[in-house]
Amino acid sequence: MEQQLQQERIVIENDDEIEIDLKDLVLEILSFWKWVLFALIIGAVTAYCISRFVMVPQYESTSQFYVLSKSMSITSLADIQTGTSLTNDYMVIVEGRPVLEQVIENLGLDETYSSLKKKVTLNNPSNSRILEITVRDANPSMAKKIADEIARVSVAFIQQKMDQDAPNIIQKGYSDGEPVSPNTMKNTAVGGILGMFLAIAVIVVAYLFNDTIMNADDVQRKLGLNVLGTLPLEEAEYDGEKERKVREGRKRNESGNI
Questions:
Q1: What b/e string do you get for 178-202 counting C-beta neighbours within 10 Å, with b at 16 or more?
Q2: Which residue, among 80, 83, 81, 84, has the nearest Cα to 69 in the 3D structure?
Q3: CA 152, 156, 159: angle at the middle one, nearest 5?
Q4: CB count, 10 Å around CB of 86?
């Protein structure tokens, strides 16, 4: 018998967890719309200030070199595959320790191999034998210098170590002076959205854990009990307070007449 009651109690508890009045929940959220709007504004302003005044702007510079040299021609599918394979090999060489450490030594950079490697991004545009070397740095002129030096050292390393003709540098690094990060507008929008969702989440959690009985519907929904009747306590208290004030007023009038 006790096990059956426990099972019934578990079922009722599970039903209470599953059943959520979406209409009441939406109305609850709308009733706090001012707080939601306030959280959205605070999140957006915070993200804007962090992006504008805290985060360090980053700049990029890109240099390019052509993988195939004059001694190599593209006349067949095998030549194209050879060019693609060389591009993959060169990408490994450019990010290798010998090349980057030589760049650090030549430019006198206060960097380690690992820190410089994080600043370098390599890209091979589809259906091409071109290798792009992109460097990101807080200093736009330094980003250009590093990109150019990596391309120069890589070309010399390939010619010397791989016993091949040096690839041709077709584009040196450039700097337009425009930072690539942070994206202030994007971060501001994301901050505002996160602030709004955080406020909504707090409202939803408070709503779900609020077990206060406010009316007869709450008794049936939260306790699973039927309400047989209600007493107008608020009206009785109001009438009693009103009658008490009338009696006090009469006493003051009588004392004044005396």
A1: ebeebebeebbeebbebbbeebbee
A2: 83
A3: 140
A4: 20
Give the chain's radius of gyration (CA, Å).
37
Q: Look at the block and give the residue holding tokens 């009316």.
A: 215
Higher local confidence (pLDDT), 133 or 28: 133
- 24-83 pLDDT, tens digit per residue, is 888 889 999 999 999 999 999 999 999 999 999 999 999 998 876 555 554 444 454 555
Residue 176 lies in a domain: no
Instruction: Mark residue 141 as left, alpha or beta (left: phi above 0; alpha: psi -120 to 50; beta: remaining).
Output: alpha
DSSP 227-250: ------HHHHHHHHHHHHHHHHHH
Q: Residue 220 is which amino acid?
A: Q
Q: What is the pLDDT of residue 233?
A: 55
Q: Which domain holds residue 200?
A: 2-51+185-251
Contact by Cβ (8 Å): 145, 107: yes
Are residue 190 and residue 165 in the same domain, yes or no? no
Q: Using H for helix, E for strand and C for coil, what is the string for 66-97?
A: ECCCCCCCCCCHHHHHHHHHHHHHHHHHHCCH
Distance CA 93, CA 103 (A): 13
> Helix, strand, or coil here: 123?
strand
Instruction: Tell me: do 162 and 229 sit in the same domain.
Output: no
Mean pLDDT across the chain: 80
177: left (phi over 0), alpha (psi -120 to 50) or beta: left
- Label the pairing between strands 120-123 and 130-137: antiparallel
Q: Which domain-ending residue is among 116, 136, 171?
A: 171
The CA distance from 232 to 213, in Å, is 16
Q: Look up the pTM and report it.
A: 0.65
166 lies in the same domain as 190: no
